[in-house]
Model the fold of this input.
Amino acid sequence: MLNDAAEYFGALRDTLLLAEWQVYIIGWDIHSKTRLVGPSGRAADGLPIELGAFLSELLKVKPMLRINILIWDFAALYAVEREWHSADKFTVESDDRIQFCMDASLPLGSSEHQKIVVIDHVVAFVGGLDLTIRRWDTSEHLAAHPLRHDPDGKAYPPFHDVQCMVEGEAAAALGEIATARWATAGRASKGCETVECERWPASVLAGARQVQTGIARTELRTASQGGIDEVARLFEASIGSASRFIYIENQFISATKIAEALAQRMVDVPSLHVLIVTPKAHLSWLESRAMQGGRGGFIGPFVTAGVAGRLRILYPSVHDHGLSAAVMVHSKVMIVDDRFLRIGSANLNNRSMGADTECDLAFEATTVEHRNFISSLRRRLIGHFCGVTEVELAGHEDDLLGFVDFHAQNGAGRALLPIDCERTPAGAVTGIIQPIADPKQPLDLERAARRMWNGRTLLAVCGTVVALAGLALAWRMTSLSDYTDIGYVASFISQHSHSAWAPLLAVMVFVLGGLIVFPVIVIVAATAVALGPWMGAISATAGVLASALVLFLIGRFLGHRRLQSLLGARALRVQDRITGKGVVAVAMIRMVPVAPFSLVNMLAGASQLRLSDFLLGTVLGMAPGIVTMAAFGAQIADFAKNSSWSTAVPLGLIVLLWIAICLAVQFIVTWWSGRRT
Done:
C-alpha cells in the first residue's frame, strides 16, 4: 500500500525503470508535466523528472518497450483543468512506441475512471491516483510545501490519496483488464507474454504476501456484453459482514443506497462503529453542487435509524508554522474488521456504481499476518491524519471514535474534524445538477431528448422563441423603430417635464419598457435629455432599479426550472455568469451586456442570487452610462436630430469617456470584491 502520491510516484518510477516489453497506463487524466518523483522531490537515475520527458528517455534505453496510454475523452466541462494536446506531448519522437488513446467509447455523461498501470503483466498499480498535476504530496501533508505547486507555479492544498501495488496473478489479471479496455476503445495492441523476470523494485518493501485477492469492477453495458456491477455488490456484501469497525476514506459520499446499508447493519449489530474520512469541501462548483450537495442525503439514513452516535464523518485538518489547511481527500479505501481491505478508484457516489468504469482491489485476510498488516495499515492511515503513531492508536482501540474526538477537541495541530453536513449546497440549481452529474446509470440522452422534445414542447418553445425574436426585430426593422429614437422618447417625457410627476412618469416608462424588451439605453438617454443632468440621472437610476426589480420578481415567481425550460441553453449561459458571483457579476454584465436588460433581470430572479446583491450590482454597472448620458444629454440629442461630423466628433469623445468610466468602475468593483472575499 502506497500512502500518498509521493510514495506512489517514486515506486512507479523505480518500477518503470525495470520494464522491458509493455506498459499500460489507464486513467481519468494524465499530464506530461507531472513530476514523477518520490518524497525527496528528486530523481537519482539521471532521467528527466517530468513524466512526458521521462517516458521519452526511457524508450531510448529500452529498445523493445512499448507504452499504451488510455485516458478518458473528457467532457468539455473539464477542458480548463486538462492539458491541451496531451497526445502530441507524449508521442512526439517516440517512433510510434507510445500509443495515446482518448477513450470515446463510453456514453455521453459517463467517464473512464479506472486508475491502472500494468508493467509487463508482472507488476500493477491500482488506486485513486492519476498521473497528473496537483496530486503530489507527502504523508506529512504540510500546510505549505515548497514542492507542492503546479507547472504554472501555483500552490495547491495538501492532497491525500492511496495506491496499491501488486505482482503475480493479480497483476496478470489487471493486465487482461487493461488490454480489454484498450480493445474496447478501438485500439489494437501486440500481445505481451507473461515473463518470469523480476519487476518489483528493491526500493519498495512488500506489505503482505500470498494474500487472497479479488478485483471488483464497474463496466457499462454494450451491444456485445452486459454490464458489470461488482463494485456495488462488493460494497453491500462487505458491509453486510461487518461486526466491529468499518474505516472508510472516500472523495465523495452521495450514494444513499450505501448509507442505507451501513445504517441497517449498525442497527442489526449494535457493536458496529463507522469512521468515514472525506474532504471538507470540493474545489469546483460542479463537484460542490453534485457531490458535496449529496452529503445531506447520505447522513439522513443514520439519523433516521438512530445510530448517528456511532458514526463519524470527518475531514483532516493541519496547522503548522502558523498556517492552517484542510487536506483534500481523494482516496478510495475501505477496511472492515481488520480482515477485509479494499483500495481502488470507486467513490461512494452513484456514478461509481453504474455510470463510470471503475476498478478496485480487495484483499481478504486468511492468516494472522494478513490481519496484522491490515490493522497496521488502518492505524497508519488514521495516525498520519492525527499526527500520532500506530502504537498510540493501538492503545485506544476500545474507544477509537472517542479518542479521535478528544484529540481534535484538544486543539491538536493535526486532527480529524467534523463535517458540517447542514452547510452543504442546496436549492434549485443543485436539484437540477445532481441527477446529471451523479447518475446511477449512464445518461440515455437520446431517449431523454425524445421524451423532452415532443410536439407540445416543441410548439411551446418555438412559439416563445418566435415571439421574442419577432419583438426584438420589430424594434429594429419595422415602423416601431421610430419609437426607439432618442428624440421621440425624450419629447414624450418632456411634455410633462415641468410637472412634479415627471420623474414618476420616467420611472413608469422604464418599467413598461422592461416588460416589452424596449432598449433600456434609449430610455436612459431620453430621460437625461428631457429632464436635465441632475433630475435625469436621479430619475434614470430610479427607473432602472424599478424596472430591474419588477422583472427580478417575475423571474423569482417563475422559478429556475420553468424559466430555463422556456428560454433554453442561452438562459443557462447567462445565469451561470450571474449565480454565485453576486455584485461583481451583475455589475460586469451590466457594463458588457451578454443579453438584453430584461432577460438578465428575469434570469437573476430565477437564480439563487440575493436581491441586495442584484440591486447593488445593477447600480454599479449602470452608473457609467447614466452619468455619461446625464452629463452630455444635449450633445447626444443634437446628434440624434442632426447627424454630421460636427456632432459625431463630440459624441465619439463622449463614448471614449464612457469606456474610461466603465474601466474605472470595473477596477473599483473588482478591488472591492477581493477585499470582501
Observations:
- The chain has 26 helices and 19 strands.
- Residues 426-431, 560-564, 566-581, 672-677 have pLDDT under 50 and may be disordered.
- The radius of gyration is 31 Å.
- The CA atoms of residues 32 and 499 lie 72 Å apart.
